[in-house]
Amino acid sequence: MNAFVKLRQKISPYLFLVPCLIVFGLFLFYPFAKTIYLSLYKTDKLGQAKLFVGFGNYIDLFTSESFYNSLLVTLIFVVIVVMVSMLLGLVTALLVNKNFPGIRVFSTAYALPMAIASSAAALIFEIMLDPTIGILDKFLRSDINWLHDERYALVCVALLTAWLNSGINYLYFSAGLANIDESIYERASVDGANEWQKFTRLTLPGLSPILFYTVIVNIILAFQSFGQVKILTEGGPGESTNLIVYSIYRDAFFNFRFGGAAAQSVVLFLIVMLLTLLMFRLEKKGVKY
Fold it and tell me: Does residue 175 share a domain with residue 225?
């Protein structure tokens, strides 16, 4: 009897994990394994594996000029999105870090982008950038077709994505600022520190754990951006906004090359994983807890 009780005590924690493991298995582990499987095959138009080619899809991918263009475009896009969205989140969090009349209105406005669907924001942004009726051209008194010009299309999509991500960054940074002890600023003022010194030597080090976490989250979010590209540019003009995620979508559902799309998905996963691991390696040097 005692042996049965001990066995039940050992097994019961794992039984509580079973529902979670089932959900993860159906919606995460199985699709991931299926993607790796399909990346090794040529498929028919229904996505069924037909011909085993091994690493043939990967070889085709790494000998394709279009893939390297998508990779470069994606990296530029991610850099712009991460830098701008984090800057917006940090600045807005600093602006409402003090109590003043109407603070709740500003707080709601700064957090609002996280509640807006990317498709809805993209449609509004498309109207704003329209060369005929768009408010931006009228304000600048210019005649630029922003979304159909290779010089501006990627930047426009990246700035929209950065604004959409800035809301969650604002919440992260606001939480981080709330955890910094106000007394250290008072002591710094007594010692003669100016506002810039307080920011660089007290605020930023105090926010370093939040900064580290936010960088990783924003990198992952930026690599996953799809809806705004689909609505605004569809990868164009040319391939100037052909991000890897959109390239996967186009290969799978337009060209019916599900094997090639699966190979791109695996490569994208490896890129994000390596960047995340690199960030964790750098954590020890720059993050102060």
Answer: yes
Kind and range of the H or E run holding 52: strand 49-52
Residues 6 or more apart whose CB falls under 8 angstroms from that of 237 comprise 148, 149, 150, 153
Q: What is the pLDDT of residues 7-66, one digit of tens each?
A: 777 888 888 888 898 999 999 899 999 999 999 999 988 888 889 998 999 999 999 899
d(CA 130, CA 138): 10
Strand partners, 51: 42
**Token duo for residue 229:** 């590209």
Please give the Cα distance from 39 to 266 (Å, whole number): 8
Is it true that the peptide bond before 19 is cis, omega within 30 degrees of 0?
no
Phi, psi of 52 (to 5 degrees): -75, 125
Check: pTM over 0.85? Answer yes or no: yes
pLDDT one-digit tens code per residue, 159-183: 999 999 999 999 999 999 988 888 8
Instruction: Indicate if 140 and 260 belong to the same structural domain.
Output: yes
Kindly tell me the burial class for residue 83, based on how many C-beta atoms sit within 10 Å of its own C-beta (0-12, 13-18, 19 or more).
middle
The dihedral of CA 185, 189, 191, 197: what is its sign?
Answer: positive
The radius of gyration computed from the CA coordinates of the chain, to the nearest angstrom, equals: 24
Residue 6, pLDDT above cutoff 80: no
> Which range marks the domain in which residue 132 is found?
57-286
- 231 and 154 in a common domain: yes
Residue type, 265: S
Asked if residue 155 and residue 13 are part of one domain, the reply reads: no
Crossing angle of helices 153-178 and 103-111, in 10° steps, is 130
Q: Indicate if 122 and 201 belong to the same structural domain.
A: yes
CA atoms within 13 Å, Cβ hemisphere of 111: 13
User: What is the maximum span of the chain, computed from C-alpha positions, in angstroms?
Assistant: 85
> How far apart, in Å, are the Cα atoms of 163 and each of 66, 136, 261?
28, 16, 29
